[in-house]
Write a structure and sequence with these properties.
By secondary structure, the protein is α/β, with parallel strands linked by helices. 38% of the residues lie in helices and 13% in strands. The chain has a seven-stranded mixed sheet, with helices on both faces. The chain binds adenosine-5'-triphosphate and magnesium ion (MG).
Length: 247
């Protein structure tokens, strides 16, 4: 199993949109587990479900197994562990290593080809638990100055977490989102990221497509929609590029 964490401490940078579309694309040909680690529960909504008030992925911090939180989704091969809506990570002193330990004891890797984790826009125990199990971290970012700054901060967080755990850092990939090639600032931001992190770290960008937003409302994910759209094409392309890097 390959575990891919979608993360950026900056809010509204298409983490959830990326997690949902990647998980849905992968589930066409593989068995996929989606962990909705953001208590907002937007990834759960994106795959036709909703956050739970009683049992969700955060229940592992309260003594539940991970497997007992699994529920089916609109995609045959996609299993969801939904968000536990009112879980407050700051009420607990030490949550280190819980997800990693659940993965190991429940032999999660034997049941899925991919695990996709949507994370909250914070640097807390939820993000740290995710980084502990990550093979790759995908950082989506909107190509603005603060977007570029946030990529740097997130890359440092990945390396800092690895150093503290005494392990090699997960591979980091950077995904420009809501990219408009006609906006000079967007192109300049892309160049800055290429220069700072290396152009092979960057995926081809995802453009702006309102259907990527409205799919959450309609409960009709683009991947199941027969009509073609730019957003669908971009996320299909991103998934293929990621699969190449996972080889
Ligand atoms: N390529 C796109 N084109 C148009 N709208 C988009 C695109 N990507 C994301 N959006 C919209 O932008 C908003 C932010 O996206 P999303 O919720 O995925 O970000 P996020 O990083 O998960 O946010 P948060 O930090 O709150 O978890 C949402 O309303 C989403 O529907
Ligand atoms: Mg989100």
């Amino acid at each position: 199993m390959k575990t891919i964490v979608i993360s950026n401490r900056k809010g509204g940078s298409a983490k959830t949109t990326t997690a949902v579309n990647l998980a849905s694309q992968l589930a066409k040909n593989a068995s996929v587990l989606l962990l909705d680690f953001d208590t907002q529960g937007h990834a759960s909504i994106g795959v036709g479900s909703k956050p739970s008030e009683s049992l969700g992925v955060h229940s592992i911090f309260l003594g539940s197994t991970l497997s007992e939180t699994f529920i089916p989704t609109i995609h045959d091969r996609l299993t969801l562990s939904p968000a536990l809506e009112f879980f407050d990570v700051y009420e607990y002193a030490d949550l280190r290593g819980v997800l990693k330990s659940r993965f190991k004891h429940e032999r999660i890797a034997e049941f899925f080809d991919y695990c996709i984790i949507d994370t909250p826009p914070t640097f807390d125990a939820l993000l740290k638990n995710s980084l502990e199990v990550a093979d790759r971290v995908v950082i989506p970012f909107v190509p603005h100055h603060l977007g570029v700054v946030a990529v740097g901060q997130m890359v440092r967080a990945v390396y800092q977490s690895a150093t503290m755990l005494g392990r090699d850092a997960a591979e980091v990939d950077i995904l420009p989102v809501m990219f408009n090639p006609h906006i000079l600032e967007h192109k300049a931001a892309l160049e800055k990221v290429k220069t700072s992190f290396g152009k092979d770290k960057l995926f081809s960008p995802i453009g702006v497509d309102i259907k990527l937003a409205s799919q959450f409302e309609s409960g009709d994910p683009l991947v199941l929609n027969k009509r073609r759209s730019k957003g669908l094409k971009d996320y299909k392309n991103f998934t293929n590029e990621l699969l190449e890097r996972l080889k």
